[in-house]
Amino acid sequence: MTMILSAVVIGLGAAVLLLTAGYLLGVKRGSSLRESLRTQDLMQSQDLRSLREQVSLLRNEQDESLRTTIQQILAPLAQREKLSLELSHLGDRSGHHGDLSTLLDQIAEKGNFSAVLLSDNEGLPLAASRNARDLDRLGATSSLLLLIADRLARDDAPAPLSLMVHDGANRVTLCRIFRVGDQRLALTAVSPGGQLTPTALDPALVKVDAALSNREFRHTSER
User: Fold this and answer.
1) How far is Cα of residue 76 from the mean position of the Cα atoms in its chain?
2) From CA 219, how far away is CA 58, in angstroms rounded?
3) In the chain, what percentage of residues exceed pLDDT 90?
4) How would you class 77 by CB atoms within 10 Å of its CB: exposed for 0-12, middle for 13-18, buried for 19 or more?
5) Backbone torsion region of residue 181, taken as left when φ is above 0, otherwise alpha when ψ lies between -120 and 50, otherwise beta
6) What is the pLDDT of residue 107?
7) CA distances from 21 to 11, 27, 80 (A)
8) Ranges of each domain in the chain
9) How far is the C-alpha of 52 from the C-alpha of 64, rounded, in Å?
10) In Å, what is the CA distance from 223 to each residue of 79, 97, 98, 202, 218?
11) What is the pLDDT of residues 56-101, one digit of tens each?
12) Does the structural domain 96-222 have CATH classification 3.30.470.20?
């Protein structure tokens, strides 16, 4: 009987030890698993934070690139609007409306032109800005553009109002053809690398017209 009781006690003890060992092993594995899950969650959080930072950085770069692109697109438009505004508000520093050279100097200054030339129907110079160089070549260019305009206006075709030449030095020569009374004249400007439109000189024509009209009036009075 004693031996049976002892065997039972030993069996129960062994069972308790086995259960305890299994429990402890399960606890250990659970703790290890929870630790692994915490580590994995932490790594995923760091990856998510890094991904958000990359997305934010990419969005900022795209926004900056978009702003730069828009500015590049709008810059020529803003430049043209500024030129039109500047030429619309030409002043008369000399106080003489008939001083064509002073007026052409202002046009050259406001438009950042390397030369401005006013010529007659034959391309002969009437006045030029002080910074103009090689007037013979510029006058020849103006004369040639007037000739081209005459050719284009043949057979009742619409007469060109302006002609532009873009040369190998990235200079743009704009010749604006207009009339004062019964005279056909040409206002020619050279822009070193600037972007011009065929109507870029139009705002200055009113001042040129006024200066020429006043000049003719003074000459008539003097006679």
Assistant:
1) 6
2) 69
3) 26
4) exposed
5) left
6) 92
7) 15, 10, 88
8) 1-88, 96-222
9) 18
10) 44, 19, 16, 32, 9
11) 777 777 777 777 776 656 555 656 666 667 777 776 544 444 478 8
12) no
